[in-house]
Amino acid sequence: MSQLIRFLLVTVLGVILDLAIAFALHAYAGLPLWLAAASGFAIAAGANYVIHQTWSFRSGPLSMKRAALYAGVALVTLAVRVGIVALLERALPAAWPLAILVAGAGGSFCVNFVLSKWVVFAPGEERA
């Protein structure tokens, strides 16, 4: 199975967790949609890092260096996600929160894969 397929599978599970948390925080806890999106993303990102390190990219044991790089990538990805959500929330009716969250997740997936593959889990980088 290729890295992209493994990354996609982990990310899909992460997005499901992410969106479920975000939607619940918005619908049931009354958090603003942008804050709910950021919260769901942060929780899922932590789980995704561990699985990407050990399975998606098979980069050996967990690494503090890679964890720090992944945190940086997560911040960039989060900025993309929240930006998309904020823009679409202004442009679309309030009846579309799940569609807005999904669009934000799609845009951030692309950024996350490219940065994860070529920055965090780059071939030939140290494994510790």
UniProtKB/TrEMBL annotation:
**UniProt keyword annotations, A-Z:** Membrane, Transmembrane, Transmembrane helix
Q: Which parts pass through the membrane? A: 7-28, 34-55, 67-88, 94-115
For this entry, list what GO says about its biological process.
Answer: polysaccharide biosynthetic process
Note the InterPro entries from the entry.
GtrA_CellWall_Glycosyl, GtrA_DPMS_TM
- Where is the protein situated, by its record's location annotation? Membrane
Q: Domain of life here?
A: Bacteria
Claim: RNA-binding is one of the keywords in the record: no
Asked whether the UniProt record includes Membrane among its keywords, one would answer yes
What is the first-listed, main subcellular location in coarse terms?
A: membrane
Cellular component terms (Gene Ontology): plasma membrane
The GtrA/DPMS transmembrane domain is annotated at 6-121
- How does the protein associate with the membrane? Multi-pass membrane protein
Family the entry assigns: Belongs to the GtrA family.
- Stated name of the protein: GtrA/DPMS transmembrane domain-containing protein
Q: Which organism is it from?
A: Erythrobacter neustonensis
